[in-house]
Amino acid sequence: MPDVSALSWFLAAFTDPRLLALTALGTFAGIYVGAIPGLSVTMASSILISFTFAWDVETALALIAGVFMGGVYGGSRTAILLNIPGAPSAIATAFDGYPLARRGEAGLAIGITTVASFVGGLVGIAALAVAAPVIGEFALMVAPRDYFLLALMGIVMVAALAGRSLAKGIVAGALGVAFGLVGLDPMTAEPRLTFGSMQLLGGISFIAAMIGLFGLSEVLVQLHDIHRPFVRQQVGRIVPGLREVARHLPLTLRCALLGVGIGALPGTGGDVAALFAYQHARRSVKKPSRPFGEGAIEGLVAPEAANNAAVGGAYIPMLTLGIPGDAVTAVILGALFIHGLRPGPNLMIDSPHIFWLTVGNLTVASVFMLLFGLTGVRVFTRIVECPKSVLLPVIAVLCGVGTYAIQNSLTDVWWMVSFGVLGYVLRAYGFQVGPVVLGIILAPLMDANFRRALISVRGDPLALLADFVSHPITVVLLLVLIATLAGRAAPVRRLAGRIGARVARGGAP
């Protein structure tokens, strides 16, 4: 395919008024759908697919690309303002975004996340355009045991970051895994942890759990201070200065590349990428603007750059291998099949225009995300300036409506309420709710891939153990997992503190 043809299809996303308008509409809708807990990007994409059956494939993919890019970013809005992530990929953003909002700096927080998301999105798109075949081949090298370790690492990392106690973080993560395993066994169809209840056969909706643990539990916690006056938000400066953007650019690029790599692994996605990036920021940034967890700008830059870069990464296995990188690309994969295309190694040969048009659509969506993300912030931040006696009931009602909208099920609403009470109790005793949500989300990925790994060695535990220590990718993941646990262990931290103090005094380590 000549380069001029590839360039013309890429530029068509910018020059065709119809594609431009649909991408802008999708991005705008995605931002505000992503900001509403319970209304996921996957749900929005699924609904859109039903409306685009009669469209040509170019216009359908333009609209969906906008929704995907905007929705991943949109989840950060409510994570910052209300400590309620609009999407799982925004869980890590709440760690430092909400403390910033409580300081009255919501405008700055939203501006920083918007720019980081924009840069991360462009890095992901560049990786899709340049390195799609290479990263696609690497994704094929990752075995089920590696996916198991990736899921386990995601839970352990957020457990290590959750509060001061590693033990409490691990207990919360394990509790989430137990909830995530409820329902029918995906391989044998046997009920697990259902206690004979028909309502539990379908499992527990992680969105209901997320809304309850983050949303309703926050309402219950805030009831203790319902008469405290609101914090007026400083929204005079929304767009961060060039010096501030340049200062965080190395971290933004590192986390974006990390997001591309994780996003290209089928079955992972922006939530795992954001957690890995947040952990990387905590380890690599020696002098953050504030302590992590108390409003560090670096704690916003890292996850937002990673989760938007993971969008481009998720397209890589979908287009080059025919394997969806996450739930949204699974929907897009279905749309391609409906329109008579066959994603996979031959797509670049049979329909190269689809690839380059997709790259163009995602680039346009990133630009619109930047424009829409930096506008309307003053109106949006007024949410947290409402009196709590008005705001908290509204949030509680929205939690119920958003949960019911998932499957039109009152059972999900009751689960949301139960998880809200559980989250309130956990937070009262010093536990963080982030590991619980991640445990529920990643438990099926851990379970399925561990069993696939065991099946691959015919059920021999010793052979599986040998596999874990004899393959380079697996060994690297194991070492990272061990280092994460060891780095948070009290004896190791005390030893590191003594060594650091001695080095600072000029003595030998």
Automatic annotation (TrEMBL):
The keyword Transmembrane applies. It holds the Pfam family TctA. The chain crosses the membrane at residues 31-54, 106-135, 147-163, 169-188, 200-221, 321-341, 353-377, 389-407, 413-443, 464-486. InterPro entries: DUF112_TM. The keyword Membrane applies. Residues 20-438 form the DUF112 domain. Keywords: Membrane, Transmembrane, Transmembrane helix. This is Hypothetical conserved protein.
